Amino acid sequence: MEERTCQQQLQEENEKLKRTLLMKEKEIKSLTAENVNLKKQLQKQQPFTVLGVRKREKCIKNLFKYYTGLTYVNFLCLLTFLFPDVNSKINFGRSDTKHITNESALFLLVCRLRHNFRLKDLAVRFGLSLQSTGTVFNIFVR
Question: What is the pTM of this model?
Fold first, then answer.
């Protein structure tokens, strides 16, 4: 009889684990769907970037050249010329520019020169303050 109680306990534990597993699987499915939705939202809200424009070129031909006046290859050549040390990073001296790479800073510059985007417009596009946007632009122009 004692053996049967052990067996019953194991069976109950097994059923409990199965229910927990089903709940966890539902939770994973729900979180995965939420993750997909959040990624879609984030893509819509991402700051203006070289990668973002390059990705959109699948739908809109020559978009990168439209914004910069340069082909992507020419842009990379210019970037390499200006920053031969890949690991170097310009210090703009502002806290909100820490995420700005040399590539993004150059992209900001050529977009402004090409289209005369105002600093406020670029600040919104690149996720910077107005003052930081001016600092990034001025460091290149000086």
Answer: 0.67
Question: Of 116, 141, 120, 142, which is closest to residue 132 (Cα–Cα)?
Answer: 120
Residue 115 to residue 93: CA distance in whole angstroms: 26
Tens of pLDDT, residues 25-40: 999 999 999 988 887 7
Q: Do residues 127 and 47 touch, judged by C-beta distance below 8 A?
A: yes
- CB under 8 Å to 96, separation ≥6 — which residues? 127, 128, 129, 132
Q: Where are the domains of the chain?
A: 1-45, 47-141
Scanning the chain, the segments in alpha helix (DSSP H) are 2-45, 50-56, 63-68, 72-82, 102-115, 119-126, 130-141
